Amino acid sequence: MISGSSCRNLALLAAVLMLLPLPMMQYVGEEGLMAIKSYEMFVRNDWLHPSIFGGVWPHSPLWHWPVMSISMLIGWEHVDIAIRLVSVFATWLSAAMAAWFAVWLYRDRPGIGWLAALVYLSMGEVAFWYGWLGYVDALFGCFIFSSIVLLWRAMAEEHAGWLLLSLVAISLAFMTKNITAYALYGIAGLVLMWRLQRWRLLKRPLFVLPALLALAVPVLWQAWIVPAGENTATTTVRDALRNFAGFSLLDYLWHWLSYPLVFVFRALPVSLLLLWWWLQRKQRFALTEDGQTLAWIVLACLLPFWLSAGATPRYLVPLYGLMALLLSGLLLQVDATRLRQALMVIALVVLIKIPYSVGILPYIKDWRPERDVKAVAEEIMHMTDNAPLRTQNDVATGLAIAAYIDVWRQDREPIWWYRGREKGVYILAEAPTPGLGQLLKSWRLRGDHVYLYWRGNE
Length: 458
Known about the structure:
Order of helices and strands: HHEEHHHHHHHHHHHHHHHEHEEEE
Radius of gyration: 24 Å
Number of strands: 7
Distance between the termini: 80 Å
Number of domains: 2
Strand order of the largest sheet: 4-3-5-7-6
Structural class: alpha/beta
C-alpha cells in the first residue's frame, strides 16, 4: 500500500526545493545566451524573432515569452531568475502530468499519482540540473511528454478530444525549440499504434485531419514568420547530422555502451535502487502490458540518440516523464518494507538538494575568484563607462558578461556584435585580436580568456 500522505509531502518538498538554486547561481553555460535573446526581443518589441547581439536567429520564440513576462514583473535585472523560473514551472507541470496519467494508467492504486510525481521530481537529471536550469529543455520536454501521454489516452479511448490536446502540446513543443519534437511524437505514435492495435484510426477523418493540420504548423511558421533566407528545418537537420560526423569507431562503441547507462543513472535514485534489488536477486519484476508499452516508447525514442556518437544526455530530457511512469509501475510490485526503503532513499536525495544548491554547486561554479563572472562584468562596465560596448565573444563566459551588463544599464542599448566598422567603442573578444585596437585588460575566467579592447576614433 502506497502511503499517500508521505508521497504527497515529499513531492511537495521536492517541488519547493526546485527553487533553491535560482538566486544562488551565476549564469551557467548557455543561460547567458537565453537571457540575451529574451532581453533583445523585449528591447526590440519583437515577440516572434529571437536575436543575439543584434542578429536575428531563426529559432522558435515561445520559451522567451514567459521569460519576458516574468522579467517585466520582477525587473529585468533579475532575468537570471526568470529564465530558471520558466524551467521550474515546466518541471512542476511535467510532474503534474505524470501524476495525472499515472492515476489513469494504474487504476485503483491509491496514492499512485503522488508517487509518480515524486519519482519524477526526485530524478537526478531533473532535481539537480535540467529541472531548474535556464535552458529550453525543461519546457520542451514538458510539452513532448504531455503530447505523448495525451496521444496514448486518445488512442486507448479513441477520443478525438484528447488527440486535439495532444496536437496542441506537440505544436507548443515545436514553438519552444525545433522540429525534433515531431520526430519523437511520431515514433511514440507508431509504437502506440502497434501496441494498442489502433491502425483503424488512420481511416477516421476526426483523427487524420487534425493531425495533418498540426503538421502544417512548422510549414506555416517557416512561410510567415521565419526571416527570408533562413530555414529552421535545415538548421535542425544540420545540427542532427553533426552528431554522426567526425567520430571514430571507438567513439561510437563507447557511446553505444555508455549512453543507455547514463540515461538510467541520471534517473536515480529509483532506477538504481530497483536495479540493485534485481541484481541482488531480492526482487523480480514483471512488465505489465502498459509497462511494456512504456518501455518500448522509451527505447524507440532513445534509439536515434543512441545510434549517433555525438548526442548528449540533455536530448533525453523529454523521456524522463515516461521513465517516471515506468519506474512508478515497477515500485508497485515491491512489498511494503521495500517501498518504505525506496521512500527513505528518495527523501535523502531530496534533502541533499539543500546543501547541493546553497553550497556545493555555487562553490564549484561561482565562488572561486577565477569563476566570478559578475565581478568581471562589473569591472568592465566601470571601465567602459558611457562609451558604446561591442563584442566578438560568443562563448559562454562572454555571453554571461554581456547578459549582466545589458540588464544593469537598461538606459543604454544592448551590446551588439562588432562588425569592424565603428570607432570610439570598447570591444570584448574571446581571443587575442590586435586588429581590434588597444588591449586594456584580459581576464582568465572559467577556463576561457576575455579581452577588452578600445577602438579609438583615429
